[in-house]
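quick one before i forget lol
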Amino acid sequence: MSTSEGQRATALYQFGPFCVDPEKETLSRAGEPVPLTPKTFQILLVLVRHSRELVTKDDLMKTVWPDTFVEEANLSRNIFMLRKALGETAQDHRYIVTEPGRGYRLAENVHVVPGEELTIVAARHSKVQVDVKETRPWKWAALVTLLAVAVGASWLILHRRAGPMGRAVLSEKDTVVLADFANSTGDAVFDETLRQGLAIQLEQSPFLSLISDERIRQTLGLMGQSADVRFTPAIAREVCERTGSAAILEGSITPVGNQYVLGLRAKNCHNGEVLDEEQVQVTRKEDVLNALGQIASRFRTRVGESLTTIEQYNTPLAEATTPSLEALKAYSAAWKVVSTTGSAAGVPLYQRAVEIDPRFAMAYAMLGRVYGDIGESALSAENTSKAWQLRDRVGGWERFFIEASYYMEVTGNLEKAQQTCDAWARTYPRDVRPYGFLSGAIYPVQGRYDQAIEKSRETIRSDPDFVFGYNILALEDIATGDLEGAERALQQADERKLKIPDLFIDRYQIAFLKSDQDGMYRVASQTPRESGAEDWIAHLQSTALAYGGHLEQATKMSQRAIDLAQHSDQPERAALFQSGEAIRDAFFKDRPTAVRHAESALKLSRGRDVQYGAAFALALSGNLPRARVLADDLERRFPEDTAVRFIYVPELRALIALKQNKPAKAIELLQSTAPYQDGEPPSSFFGFYGMYYPAYLRGEAYLAEHQGLAAAAEFQKIVDHPGVVISDPIGALAHLQQGRALALSGDKVKAKTAYQEFFKLWKDADSGIPILERARAEYVNLD
């Protein structure tokens, strides 16, 4: 390690068990470091230098943020963080006293330790050579104090340098590649863990942009390297060049006796020039994560990020993640397996992380996310709620992630979720995740498919290896009827060798909409068991069979889907499949079976979408008291939920009114669904039911009121949007109902055409289906 020389006069401030070093910008307690953000430290320093004196809020803000306008809430937040660092509680403000409406003062006496001129002659590994020039008669006491702080601290900055002439070395448009840490300690707990920890710390920055692991794996494939190859600096440099990035970050951890030296070096990947170099010495394994956070903060300052954003988005790593290396190791492993294998594979690893550290907010958040991805909404809500309760521990994009997830998975308030994602995207304009949430989970429910397409394309432009961007783009192209566009999106994903279970579903739906039986069979037969999509495909096959009137085969395929989901320990997903089957049975007039399947679904899960599907099937089958109880329960359990308030409950109450021969009331109740009637409700994501149900119910209500043309117009909405309806039973039934509506209006020619479309779909249907026999009789009577 190179020699660093310099000279300074020390001046330490002591109060209680704390020691403040203005030069190093460090706070320690009994020799142990106490992490503080730069602005929080500056506030402490002002209070320390005015011990027992009132410092007004205005003076504090002008001193700490001299050239920037900040709101008082920012000061309050930093005071809160400072109190937390000093160990104060809400009931005991021992050190910092608030003068209401005025400001703050430090209640403790402060002792200044004026020092000797201390010259660091050399810094090599764990030994620090010190020359001291006497400036006070009590030099030995001061020297002992200084060495106690320097040697007794848990970490010590050894060496640091920045780019040429200290100029900013990165811009806001640059991307950075993070290599694996070189771990020479022999302790496997540091493998991948430190890289993940550093990535989390650096990703708090709106300034820095790390190349995603997905894009790294894609580039490795183009290089002929396996996805799990050791990501050494040499390989990272080639990835850096191929992705057009500006720099690579090389991390290292080295044992020095019983201590560790953490290193971070930024290099220009084109010429190898060292842009910045930081090193920290750590005396205890338990403090490695704190030191990693400290080194990341200093790096952000040195490469050109503004102090304003560093102050605002710089939660200490041990708080943002976990103080446990073992928990972070499990989290890192989960993150990797999810991006390569799928969401279900990450569940046990995220569970392991929260078992080790029950206060690991982001592990709960990611556990909630992967449960949501596989259709287990109740477990998703449970874990996301725990993350929400711990959200004050995180900062940066993780805070946005937890808040958006909470609104989507727990409260279901899509308006708040959208506002959070919009703020997230403004703060982190290069982060693809808010666009993914907007285009994949929010806009489709609202029927805003064009905007979803726009956002999904933005995600692909920002990160061409963000596989969910291609999936969302394909789905929204399908919804708008652009099947060629959907196929192009899937082809682009194939070219980049990107795979997730959802892509099999996309391909099956395209084949179904093109009436490509061979294509449907090919997708189903080529879906591997380990893909996580086998049960999903089986359920989709059952809906396609029923759409063509093959009800016996559909029932068998439904049971296969349910069995596969239960075998994979996904009871809510199985319940979604069964509630969808119950709705189908009810539509096709097999009411006893519909009731049985609805109750079976409710035994498996009381998830929001399951309960809605079961209640709809029960109401359609005439079991109105049971359906009403379930609707009331949904309204009580999910008072903020957008789908419950504006889709599920209005539909259920309208259906109950229809069954009570109150069509006018049903039409009135359906008015609140208008903003969402063109959208895809959450029940459609895994259950494939619920799309355009307001139009179908409204059409039936107009039929009951003998308004044939109005009814036909409602059923036409369903016919005109096959990419939204896909294989929901109402897609086939809309033709039959439209024939009935047109016949009622007196237009027998168009009525016959509508009936013929239904017969074409059901040309090979099972024999003896009552609804088909009735339709044939009605058609004959048109002559």
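fyi Residues 647-781 form a domain with the Serine Threonine Protein Phosphatase 5, Tetratricopeptide repeat fold (CATH 1.25.40.10).
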